[in-house]
Specification:
Length: 212
């Protein structure tokens, strides 16, 4: 088990660089590892939000759960048959520490939920499934330079790491979720970015191990 965060700077032999689409590596500033306890995906989000290392993951899961409960109709439409699975995965009991594989953060099925709950741009740079998730219920800031971008990549479908992108890095194309995702995204979000066709647009859900 990885007990502490580790930062690997570009220009060296970056750990976990094999997890990313090769053409994106020049746009990577650093790859930041997090504790591997089942909550690594949520820890990556917490790291991007600059939340405390100790319980930031817990704040992330609870905010995602609050979002899916408060806007249940929206998320039932977006997630379809995956709604209950996602809701149960992000539910976080008071004294819970680790997470079982049924509670892992999975993309792309949780991508729009993360970007909407925290009003951020979430970029998945995982090899073979690169895509960008944009918020569903907000308009972009007056200056897109103020946008918060959180990028991450997955290793063998078992561990997430956070990827720090260089300034003005391009972005993967927006994720199209069941044909309705981008229809709900404010046009300002879509028009404010330089998208790059490095990899095929993700159109299928990356199933957690118990659904494979």
């Amino acid at each position: 088990m990885r007990r502490a965060s580790r930062r690997t700077q570009s220009g060296s032999n970056m750990a976990y660089s094999h997890c990313l689409e090769p053409d994106w590596l020049p746009h990577v500033e650093a790859i930041i590892d997090v504790v591997s306890d089942g909550n690594c995906g949520y820890r990556c989000i917490a790291s991007g939000l600059r939340l405390a290392d100790v319980d930031g993951w817990r704040i992330v899961r609870r905010r995602m759960y609050d979002e899916i409960i408060e806007y249940e109709d929206l998320w039932r439409e977006v997630l379809g048959s995956s709604f209950e699975t996602v809701k149960n995965a992000v539910h976080c009991p008071e004294k819970q520490e680790g997470a079982s594989f049924k509670e892992w953060l999975t993309l792309p099925d949780m991508g729009l939920l993360v970007s909407t709950a925290f009003n951020v741009i979430l970029v998945n740079l995982s090899h073979g499934s690169a895509s960008t998730f944009l918020p569903l219920r907000s308009t972009p800031p007056s200056s897109l330079h103020n946008r918060l971008i959180i990028a991450m990549a997955n290793e063998r479908n078992i561990h997430w790491v956070r990827v720090q992108l260089r300034v003005n890095a391009p972005h993967c194309h927006p994720y199209i979720h069941r044909g309705i995702g981008t229809l709900r995204i404010d046009k300002g979000w879509r028009d404010g970015f330089v998208f790059r066709d490095i990899a095929p647009i993700a159109t299928t859900i990356m199933k957690p191990p118990y659904l494979l």
